[in-house]
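DM from R.C. (forwarded with permission)

"hey, sorry to bug you on a friday — could you get me a structure for this? deadline for the figure draft is monday and I only need the backbone to look sensible"
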Amino acid sequence: MSIKPGTRIGPYEVTSPLGEGGMGVVFRAHDTKLQRDIALKLLPDHFANDPERLARFQREAQILASLNHPNIAQIYGLEDSTPQRCIVMELVDGETLRERLRRGPIPIDEALPIAKQIAVALEAAHEKGIIHRDLKPANVKITADGQVKVLDFGLARAFDERPESRVSDSPTLISASVPGVILGTAAYMAPEQAKGRTADKRSDVWAFGAVLYEMLTGWRAFDGDDATEILAAVVKSEPDWSRLPVGTSPSIQKMVRRALKKDPRHRLANIQDARIEIDEAIAEPQAGGLEAQPARQLQIAWGLVAVAVLALAVLAAVHFREKALEAPEMRLEITTPSTTFPSDFALSPDGRHIVFVASGSGPQQLWLSAG
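My reply, with the result:
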């Protein structure tokens, strides 16, 4: 699709390209009527030229437009006044989570607030009966101020080639001709989607678990050289749980494991449960959240130091007591002048001399006796 800056599509003037995915090319554009910048996603030709699918998307767009939520990029409508059919969407500035992950894993104190906002977005959609079906890092944007926006909500169903087709619930399978799209999506597909079964909200929970695992570790939960290997890993393999950071609280580890249960009946049933776990980990780090592990380790270290100091003190006391008990008895014999008798006396530090006061018929005198 060769669209150049300055091209007009209805009331929208294209300004620059933003990206390309399996569901179309996205451009930044200006709405000349409402005087605001928006995003235009141009539909693939095989979709735009199919009246039945366009009509189905229009029905879906009406539902998707009801998702007015701060963590969901809104769909404004469908522009079909020109040969170039496109979706009109909210423009979200910032980097995608996929771009952020190229720099490596996200520290847990940053990852959990991002994950919480993703969970909140899914929770709001699920309450309206809308399932994302294609949650992945490329469909999550993070603004400069840290706000998360989930993109392309519900478009997987809107792009479904046949309403009765279960396999085409996954955009991975209908976008196989686009290089890289299969790998990007297959890694986050729930096992039931990989097997061609109907996706439900538990499929979104699975994708959420896969995304959170990748945020914390910097590795995909399920990977391979091609789509076949990735899907086989999704169905048969387990993530490498040892890659989770040491500081990850047990409650968060347990939540991610439950989100990635292969059998939907054993999986975390609601994204709300995941959001609650994250809320508690953020609000109460001392109970096992963001800073619990370092704090606990510091407390243990100081406790060991205190025990060691106490032990040394006890050993020292016993040692000196034993030394005192073992000291030899000293007997001193002092010869004084016949006309005097000693009263006050003092022993020198080395025990070799004694000074005493002797008195008799005359004045008191100090006497020194050598040991």
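R.C.: lifesaver. The CA atoms of residues 101 and 359 lie 96 Å apart.
me: no worries. The chain is about 40% helix and 20% strand.
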